[in-house]
Design brief:
The protein is of the alpha+beta class. The protein is built from five helices and 13 strands. The strands form three sheets. Strands 3, 4, 5, 6, 7, 8, 9, 10 and 11 form a nine-stranded mixed β-sheet that branches. The protein has a two-stranded antiparallel sheet with strand order 1-2. It is globular. The relative contact order is 0.16.
Length: 272
């Protein structure tokens, strides 16, 4: 805004006043800037802009398994451990979540072959297969489908539906193995859907628990028929019943599952 005021010398002429905030500033070409004439520090550190997307599509990028080409490379590497004489041909590949006897979630690649079920612990960050558990299909005697069930006083429960595979005619682990959170000597394996099963259309077919259950039952029945175990009754029992997980306090599984430590994910500057 322009303002008029009387001159101080009383000449009666009006003087034109320009506020300091609107005064003209001489233009300095970029090449003429010097440290003395610029208010910017001589050295600056620029950081990339980080924008968190809380939607499922945004969270999908946090899982290494959903990055382009990762699942294909993992499957190709795991096929190397398949033994044609013991396992036969690979029939299907699945991306599921295994739930151990202490209610800990673990990201797993599961392969159904002619004669075996292969449960693979795969590091999708370093792209390395760390462990493979082989279960003979003709040793599977019970497949249970149902909701998860916990003791009445359990403090850490979960919802949802799972599939439990039991073998060697054992329904429970021994007392020592049952109360050892790191024990792998448990005569069953429990699976549920991956938490991002429906977030990526390209991989959604690998995460469908219902389709996995159907193909597993067919493969087990076929193995019992074509390769029966001598000296024992063959056949598989398919049940619809609750899946009991005997945890009470569940502090360790609560931390593990809330932080998603069982999945290959980005965690700031650290990935597990």
């Amino acid at each position: 805004m322009l303002q008029l005021r009387d001159s101080v010398d009383g000449s009666g002429e009006a003087a034109l006043m320009v506020p300091a905030a609107e005064a003209d500033v001489p233009f300095t070409p970029p090449g003429d800037l010097s440290p003395s004439s610029s208010s910017l520090p001589p050295r600056q550190t620029l950081r990339p802009l980080s924008v968190r997307n809380p939607t499922r599509g945004g969270r999908l990028k946090e899982y290494f398994v959903f990055r382009p080409g990762t699942i294909e490379q993992a499957v190709n590497e795991i096929r190397v451990v398949v033994l044609p004489t013991e396992d036969g041909e690979v029939q299907s590949v699945w991306l599921l979540t295994e739930i151990d006897h202490w209610n800990n979630e673990k990201e797993r690649l599961v392969l159904i072959t002619d004669w075996s079920l292969l449960i693979c612990k795969y590091d999708f960050i370093s792209l390395q297969c760390q462990q493979v558990t082989r279960i003979l299909l003709n040793a599977v005697d019970t497949i249970s489908i149902g909701e998860f069930e916990f003791p009445p006083k359990s403090l850490n429960k979960r919802e949802g539906i799972g599939v439990r595979i039991q073998w060697d005619k054992q329904s429970r682990a021994s007392f020592i193995n049952r109360w050892n959170p790191w024990s792998s000597n448990v005569p069953y394996a429990t699976f549920t859907e991956h938490p991002m099963a429906d977030a990526d259309e390209k991989i959604a077919s690998l995460c469908q628990l219902e389709n996995f259950k159907t193909q597993l039952i067919q493969a087990v029945k076929k193995a019992h028929k074509e390769c029966p175990l001598p000296g024992r009754a063959n056949g598989v029992l398919v049940l619809e019943r609750p899946l009991l997980i005997e945890t009470y306090l569940g502090l360790m599984s609560f931390i593990n599952n809330e932080a998603k430590l069982g999945y290959s994910m980005t965690r700031g500057k650290i990935g597990f």
